Structures are given as C-alpha cells and as structure tokens.
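Below is just one:
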Amino acid sequence: MSDGFTIIPAIAITDDILVSSNVAENDYPVYSTATTYAVDAYVISTTTHHIYRSLQGANTNKPLPVLPATATDWWQDVGATNRHKMFDRSVQSQTSNPNSIEIELAIEGRATAVTILNADGDELHIEMESPTAGVVYDQTFSLLDHAGISDFYSWHFDDRDRIRDLAITGLPPYAGVTLRISILRPGGTALCGACLVGQAKEIGDTQFGARIGMTDYSAKTPDAFGNLTVLERAYSQRGSFTVVVQNTFIDRLHKLLARYRATPVVYIGSPLYGCMVNYGFYKDYETEIQYTTESLLSINIESLT
C-alpha cells in the first residue's frame, strides 16, 4: 500500500472563524429570559449554537446549561443547531440544506487539508483566497461513486452511490486565508456530518495488512420466542494500521501522539479509501524499533459516533 499515514488536528470552528453559512439557524425560537416556556418547549441559543428542551412548565428566566453540563432542573441540551451540526463532535448528526451547504471560514493560521464525513452531495468545491496572492486554490471534486460501474449495462441501470467520506490534502500552506467550502446537491438535500479543516501532518507510510471495521451500538433484544426488537443507534468506525516511520522522527511522533491523546483528530490510513478516514482518538499504539533507520508504528483508531 505504502500510502502516507496522515494526522489532521482540526481547527475549532468559532463564531470568529465561521464568517458565513447559507444554512439558516432558525431551528426553534431564540431563548429569551422574558418568555415563559411550557414543558417540552424547544429553544436555541445563538451563543452556544445548541438546542434546548424545557423540562418543566412555568419555565421563566431559568439559565440554560453551560457545557460541559448538558442539563439542569429546567433545561436539557439536545445537541447542536442544524447549521452547527457539521462542526460538533458527532459524525452521525448532519447539517442539512436544500441544494447546497456553503460556508466561508476565516483561517488565522494554516489549513492544508479539508475533510468531510457522512456527507451527501454531487460535488465538493474548495476555494482558498489569500489577502496578498488572491485565489491560490480552486478545485471541484465529484462525490459520485463510480466503483463497480464497468460496462454499458451497469452505467445505465445499476444503483449509484455517493462518496460519503473524503479527505483532501495538499492545499497551499498560506496563512490568514479565506476558505470557502461547498457541498452541492442541486435538486436534493445536501448533508454533512462533519467538516474538518486543519494542517495535515504525514508521519509515515501505511503498510498492507490494515484492518478496518465498525462498532454498532444498536440494541437487538430477543423475546422468549426469538423475535427480535431492534433499537437502531449510532455506530463508530475502527481502524488498525502498521506504519513505517523514520527513526529520526520517533521522539517527535511520541510527543505528537501524547498531545492528541484526549483530542479528536482526523487519521488518514490511506487517501484511496474513504473507510480509512477516521475522526476520533487512537485507542493505543506502540512503536517497534525494527531497523537501523526505520521503525514500525502499530496504532488502533476508534472514531466518534
């Protein structure tokens, strides 16, 4: 395989970075301390960009929960607003919008990679503009998956799939740029579970023998007669990789992995396969100093749901 194993620490998308989005933030009314809310009323906060459910009636001037708390006696945090679902720490929750999702980001540092996960669209368009050099990157990527379309019959009659997970690296390392990202789905609904931007760090070459899988959190409960009741829940991807790294990089590698031991980042086992792009944590790793100039890194990745 010998593809580059890459780590992309994602930039947190704050209000200062998210310059614009064509996705309206109008899921529910904006919370007001002057309004009395009934039980099960929903509101949003344009400060936290989360949705909250009232847990009691006669709910007036009761503060919303502040993260990391997700509930008080009066309010329950039920997740990000539609506009911001693509920026939360969940891949399964999706931002949705008719025809397209279009965002503009003001990047202070450098962002050489864009990753979209659990997306649905026809095309991904990325444009980078430098205040001094103008437009330095402008590319469109098809999200239509033509795998298995090999003849006239399959081209016209087989069901078409879409590329759901895609990592684009190699953006020019300009600092202080404007980054415009669009997922285009004309005539349909554009979806995006996660949109992650950051500076890619290639740490070695992924070897053949990589293993990928999935952990399903759904519940399948049989009754006394063997009939199953299925409760569908989220799932997470897994990946196990062996990576050849240079011995001169070992100390830096260990510091790098220690830095992100409790921070979700993008791990790319191989850019050839969307299923080898994971956003989450490494479960464990070890480095075997095998040769004079090269060592073997074994790392197990578990993605967020």
